[in-house]
Amino acid sequence: MANDGTTLDCDAILFDLDGVLVDSHPLIERILRAWAADRGVDPDAAVAASYGRRDIDLVRVVAPTLDAEVEAAWIVEREEREFTGIIPIPGAAGLLAALPAARWAIVTSGTRKVASGRLRAAELPAPVYMVTAEDVREGKPAPEGYLRAAGLLGVRPDRCLVVEDAESGVRAAEAAGMRCLGIGAALVGGEIGAALDAWAADLRPVDPEVVTAGHVRLNIHPNGSN
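Above: the chain sequence. Below: its structure as tokens.
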């Protein structure tokens, strides 16, 4: 992982959603803690295991004796109607505004309805292509979602840059043969930090220096906003 100024060249950027473009973690935590408390599951474990995972995969990890489909439906039903407090990650609006529609997509572990609602709540644009929980058989850390997004954009995996805030997402990018820009404190240091091509606290240090119809060059500034 680079800690000084870094330049990354790519032909497409594939964004995770929660924690990368929108700050939804307080809302997610409220919903998961309510679910966990009602079912005798450790709320801290549920929250910790949720990052980068589909709800159905989360249930399988923390509550393997429960019906994963039924429990995931309970969580999703609340996620699809509760959007209070969601705001954009600093720098997200400016970065997306600088990118042509054909140069970026979203790959999220949430459902399409959840993702669309969170983008609207944060007043961020919807992408042309968005790969959601319904579109894949295996969620992150499997590479299926990122590979599907690359195919939709018509870009080779090795020319895609993934932007992620969770270890499962970084592993998905790695398995897909894509470079990865890490966002947020959860990816600082350790083995997962070594898997990153660059890191930033949020999107403010990410400067789209060169943007053309088929290419993007990002400068990641080491000392905060660009």
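The chain has nine helices and eleven strands.
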